[in-house]
Amino acid sequence: MIVGNGNFLFLTQERQKSARTKGDIQKLMDEVCTIKEILKDAKQCPHCKMAISKIEGCNKMTCWNCGRFFCYQCSAAISGYDHFNGDCVIFDEAEIDRWQMPMNRRLHRMVVGQAQVALLARGHAYPYPTCGQAIRKIGNNNHLYCWSCNQHCCALCRTSVQKMSQHFGPTGCKQHTENP
After folding, report:
1. pTM of the model
2. In this predicted model, what pLDDT tens digit does every residue of 47-57 receive, in sequence order?
3. N or C: the chain end with fewer CB closer than 10 Å?
4. Please, are residues 171 and 154 in contact by the beta-carbon 8 Å criterion?
């Protein structure tokens, strides 16, 4: 089909408008989907109706739009912490658990450290040659394995063991001996 110069220009412009409109519609649809996703977890400020999302922390929220306080759990306008004496809690269980995890890890390291010091002081443990972790000999077995650095060593000569068959044997250390 042959089109005159004026008609060709008109058709080209119409196609560009159509393509732009399709792109604009797609952008608008993407924006609506994004807003729906945001509003899934967001709560509206009871004062200004701004959507507020909580990532972590307590349920006492400060609206960044109007600066007023509200409860994230029930969306009620509040003034202080008195609101949290009833049905609403200042921290959700999941938030408390999230905060306690690093504390529990720190406590575990502290307890393990104290136990290691006690074992070393009584002579029932050996400092591991690779990481310094206190490791206890189990029974009469001189082959030790460190849970911290995943290495093997000998309780008699306190060296790392790469191949047990070469280290423990007729020419090497005895694998089983009585405790001193």
Report:
1. 0.41
2. 999 988 888 88
3. N
4. no
For residue 137, the 8-state DSSP code is P
Which amino acid is located at 40 in the chain? Answer: K
Taken in order 132, 145, 175, 137, the sign of the CA dihedral is: positive
Give how far the C-alpha of residue 157 lies from the chain's centroid of Cα atoms, to the nearest Å.
41
- Do residues 63 and 52 touch, judged by C-beta distance below 8 A? yes
Phi, psi of 75 (to 5 degrees): 65, 20
Which DSSP string do the residues of 64-101 spell out, in sequence order? TTT--EEETTT--B-SSSGGGGSS--SS-HHHHHHHHH
With tokens 């995890």, the residue in question is 101
Task: Name the one residue in this structure whose structure tokens are 């020419």.
Answer: 171
Alpha-carbon span 141 to 177, nearest angstrom = 7
Contact of 126 with 149, CB cutoff 8 Å: no
The two three-digit tokens of residue 35, written as one number: 């807003």
